Amino acid sequence: MTVTEYAITYLKNEVRIIETSHRREVLAELSTFKKAIIYKYTEDGFDDLNEHLRVGKGDNIPLFGILLAECLAKLPDFDEIAYRGINLTSIELQRYIDAFENNTVITEPYFISSSSSIYVGNSYGENLFKIFSKSGKKLMQFLSILKKRKSYFVSTADSGFLQSKIIILV
Question: What is the pTM assigned to this prediction?
């Protein structure tokens, strides 16, 4: 199923919102249907998709995730520093500390919302990460007014999912 077919079949409301809002004018390189997929992810599609990717460790990626990665690939890379707070267990935190100390890149099989603002990034959780983004995508123009405080961009890897060097701020 193509992006267009998916959007026409499952995202009628999102297509209408793109066509009747300021989002129609932004990112001219994207079709309305590609914008609808990104918009769906930023509004209420991120929880289910990211949970599926986390639990499945990136295997059996849902069609929505594949199409989202295809759409995000059309956007320019966000090659700057971003921040993300996250709540981790001591074991999870140690995994990142070990990776940092060993200069190892950790690849996670899901999308991560982050912010170029350390203050917004810190609001996500207790452990603050500084991300040297190489392929994140700026999505602010798709967000509703209420969500603009929380999300700034989504990091993705060559396969469509996250791959950023993560540094822990102490």
Answer: 0.73
Look at residue 85 in the predicted model and tell me its pLDDT. Answer: 85
Tell which residue, 61, 86, 2, 78, has the closest CA to residue 37.
Answer: 2
Distance CA 35, CA 24 (A): 8
The average pLDDT across 14-24 equals 91
d(CA 157, CA 110) in angstroms, rounded, equals 9
Residue 54's identity, in one-letter code, is R
| 36 CB-near residues (< 8 Å, 6+ apart) | 7, 11, 14, 15, 17, 18
Q: Is 50 helix (H, G, I), strand (E, B) or coil?
A: helix
Residue 135's nearest CA partner among 105, 96, 95 is 105
Contact 130, 167 (CB under 8 A): yes
| Residues composing the chain | 170
Planar angle of CA 67, 82, 169, nearest 5 degrees: 130
Contact 55, 110 (CB under 8 A): no
